[in-house]
Amino acid sequence: MKNLIILCIFCLVLVGSTCQGASGSTKRTKKEKKQITVTVLYDNYVFAKGLKSDWGFSCLVTGTEKNILFDTGMKGELLLYNIGKLGVEPKDVEIVVISHSHRDHFGGLLSFLGKNSDVLVYLPVSCPETFVRKVKQMGARVVTADAPIAICKGVHLTGQMGHRIIEQSMIVDTAEGSVVVTGCSRPGIVEIVRKAKSILPKDIYLVFGGFHLLGKSEPEIKNIIKEFKRFGVKKVGPTHCTGDTAIGLFKQAYGSDFVKMGVGRVLKIQAISK
Ligand SMILES: [Fe+2]
Predict the structure, then answer these.
(1) What CATH number does domain 35-270 carry, 3.60.15.10, 3.40.30.10, 3.40.50.720, 1.25.40.10?
(2) How does residue 273 score in pLDDT terms, banded at 50, 70 and 90?
(3) Domain spans of the chain?
(4) Are 124 and 165 in contact (CB under 8 A)?
(5) Mean pLDDT to the nearest integer, 54-72
(6) How far apart are CA 150 and CA 170, in angstroms?
(7) Is the confidence at residue 189, as pLDDT, over 90?
């Protein structure tokens, strides 16, 4: 009888410690989820040593409900090289968003799908049917959305914007405000910011990606910066096709709120705790 009581006490202690371990690990997971991480995988500029740059853009957003790969750069080989160097696991990606049908944004997609095709791919409506078929043949599920859409909790797409070159941008809801991610901003960066604010009506914490201001004059760029300030955009990370002059002017205007981008840049943003 005495032995039975000792055995029961031992079992209770064991069960208690197991439960504690499980809840401890849940707490850790919740803590990790409190930050949203943006990692630049493909860009015209290099931020961290040992990575390669090229004309194009791609970044990974994690810490949101789903892990999202936004754009895939021009060359699959180079995307996978940077992904490998940055220790990113392709299998962890759950959603892929392609901003527009230009090779410097979708060129690496098929190579990426070769590593992980168990993803939902948001392609622009303007994407050629032959390419959509190839993506499906790789095993990926495809969504083309014309209007604004929530792709997971707290993450929206603007829906198709522009006339000649159709493009979609992404808006991530964070505790600091919304974060707007752009591919090339062909419909106009100010228009995208305006649309983002109408979809998620809160302060804009950060806008980053390609702003497409290469052909703009200095006064035109300064007017765009004024619009950014008017919209209350707190931080900016112009890169890719923005152009060096515009990047310099944004840097001058935003000072310590200018975020230098490039391959290997990792940004941590506080997530909304729910
Ligand atoms: Fe581009």
Answers:
(1) 3.60.15.10
(2) confident
(3) 35-270
(4) no
(5) 98
(6) 10
(7) yes
List, for residues 109-121, the tens digit of each pLDDT value. Answer: 999 999 999 999 9
Write the pLDDT tens digit of every residue in 19-37: 333 333 334 454 455 899 9
Whether the per-residue pLDDT at 9 is higher than 60: the answer is no
C-alpha of residue 214 to centroid of ligand 1, in Å: 11
Nearest of 142, 73, 66 to residue 103 by alpha carbon: 73
Q: What are phi and psi of 214, to 5 degrees?
A: -55, -40
Rounded to the nearest angstrom, the distance between the alpha carbon of 21 and the centre of ligand 1 is 47
- State the Cα–Cα distance between residues 140 and 121, nearest whole angstrom: 7
Structure confidence at residue 27 (pLDDT): 43
CA–CA gap between residue 53 and residue 46 (Å, rounded): 6
Please state whether the predicted TM-score (pTM) of the whole model is above 0.85.
Answer: yes
Measured between alpha carbons, how far is 167 from 182 in angstroms, rounded to an integer? 9
CA of 17 to the centre of ligand 1 (A): 54
* Cα 241 to middle of ligand 1, angstroms: 6
The Å distance, Cα 127 to ligand 1 centre, comes to 15
SS3 86: coil
Dist. CA 90–CA 114, nearest whole Å: 10
Q: Tell me how far apart the terminal alpha carbons of the chain are, to the nearest angstrom.
A: 49
Closest CA to 42 of 264, 207, 213: 264
